[in-house]
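Reopening: structure tokens for the beta-D-glucopyranuronic acid complex, inputs below.
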Amino acid sequence: MKSTLKKTTLLCFLFTLGTAFSQSVADYDLWLSYSEITDQKLSDEYRAHTRSIAFLGNSETLTVAQEELHLGLRNMLGEASFQMDADPNRATLIVGTKDQLHATIKDRLIQDLEQVGREGFVIRTMEQKGKNVLVISANTDMGILYGVFRLLALMGQHQELDKISLVDAPQIDLRMLNHWDNLDRTVERGYAGASIWNWQKLPEYIDQRYIDYARANASIGINAVSLTNVNANALILTTMYLEKVQALAEVFRPYGIKVYLTARFSAPIEIGGLDTADPLNQNVQQWWNKKATEIYALIPDFGGFLVKANSEGQPGPQNYDRNHVDGANMMAKALKPYDGNVIWRAFVYSEHDADDRAKQAYSEFIPYDGQFMDNVLVQTKNGAIDFQPREPFHPMFGAMPKTSQIIEFQITQEYLGFSTHLVFLPKLFEEVLDSDTYRKGEGSTVAKAMDGSLYDKKMTGMVGVANIGSDLNWTGHPFAQANWYGFGRLAWNPYLDAETIADEWLRLTYSNEDAFVNPMKQLLIDSREAVVNYMNPLGLHHIFDTNHHYGPGPWVSELGRPEWNPTYYHNADENGIGFDRTIEGSNAVAQYAEPLQSRWNKPKTTPEKYLLWFHHLPWDYVLENGDTLWDGIALKYQEGVDQVGKMISTWEKMKPYVSKERHSEVQMLLNIQLKEANWWRDACLLYFQTFSNRDLPDGVEKPTQSLDYFKSLKFPFAPGIRPQWD
Ligand code: BDP
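Re-run output (same inputs, fresh job):
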């Protein structure tokens, strides 16, 4: 109760401050600002529904739900408009789980409630004693909390409630954020300030942010978070830190969020005093068993471990000549008695393997299908290289029928302009989820492989690498909030389309005016293709500058490991450009099911968006529109720049709908985005021109600097850098 009061006070304070002084303070509220509804007819209608509320039952989660309903209604309709503890027989809104509802209502909802499982809900207008009553019901308290958040979101979007009949449940079990936060509060690939976890002040000091973070996550259905970087520090598993983690878990529990930790494979040596971390050594197994017992005594609903092993220098079972199955199952055994999970990442590629990096995870993991314990989830990035602006879906999806395979997206914009560029990522996520793997014939989409409809899975999951930091607006760029929101919505329902998500988010965060929502929706949707065009058009990939990945570096060729060099990926020479992954090349196409492998084996049947991902083609190769490849690449770079220009002019027209401060904040960011889009175009084209030896086609602006100038740029203090590659 204490924390709820604190929350309400702070929100009030921020709300007032936000309205009175600076819009950027209001950015703190995310999509939960619950703006006042000024349309008289609509607010009258909503008041009629919410005038007297019977909120049934009692628990920590229900208290949170009730407080949220209170806050939302007060902000949208005014304090005096509703009464919270009405008699259920006379209430206009009844909120209660199946067990709390009166039989006359319950009986009419029972069939729907049977469909919604542990986390779903029903929202319906029904007749009771000749009058209409709005009902939110669910099988569990968490379902009620999700239902309350949804009702408030529908109101925030000015949706009709009169005839509402909504039955909704998440289609994915584990809807998770991965924080790459270090114990010193730096965030690997973080562009929104320091980590929100204040380890030094925990466990005693509970930052209000933890509560607001949990609220925001619950409002979009996120139900698990791993707190620490996948490049893990074993100290997080020491008792001192576990007590801090326990405090966070207690904050998150009422919001239905389970805590996971990253487990460094060598922890038994580093903090356990053993001389080995060999997964088949009994002392090592014992050490993890005891560690699990210790953790569950503190956090009874602890989610489990997230592990990056034998990947980019992290320790793992292969250090002891064991394999991923040995490592994952050893940890899974320790967690099994407590229903915990091991999330084992499949992001592996080795400097000792000369094969195409894009093939290595599939080659290594597919033979293990069926060998992992049933509490092991194999987490695979959306594409086979690394969170690029565009990649074909990872060939592992749908190819491990006997394994609980979960998908990992990156919400933080490591390869998409950090938190400076406005890029609406649900468009990227949607493209991957909608891709057809053909693993069980046509229509075997990645979404179906993930939600368990393709193969029966013990557990399904979708993970996003968080873009959250302690910046006042949480995500650095105010529009990057949409990517956190959109990830959560897609994890709940991977079949939602990006337009719907954009529409919801714009209305909840900014304004319901069509003159704002429609052009801005288009801007969001187009923003993803814009970044592909000005960074990595036509299937180019991984041509970012070294380590920090800020800006272009297609010329980088001298790093220790071949596959860390951009030249490895674009292969530009005087004969052409692109990575040959056909049968004649690395044969990565063979990792995809038919008809994809045959299609992608030939340039003419490969979608042009993936052209240079799969093919090395001559500069005068003719594209679908008749342009040569060289001209096509150059024109795509220019198109990306022009698209940012268009975003700027659209935003210019939005002045009437947002505060002056917010408008100028986004305007400044868009201007940087334009400058950097120009930088990408000029640097890449000047460099590739040294091989193509051709002029820029008409319509492409001439570079204002030399190639040497672009090569000379250095950014030792770019944000988000990984401190050291061990
Ligand atoms: C890459 C990042 C690196 C991460 C790695 C991972 O550059 O910082 O540690 O992925 O996912 O994208 O493990």
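The chain has four domains: 1-30, 31-168, 174-263+292-308+333-345+376-504, 533-579+616-712. Confidence is low (pLDDT under 50) at residues 1-25. Marking as resolved unless the reporter disagrees.
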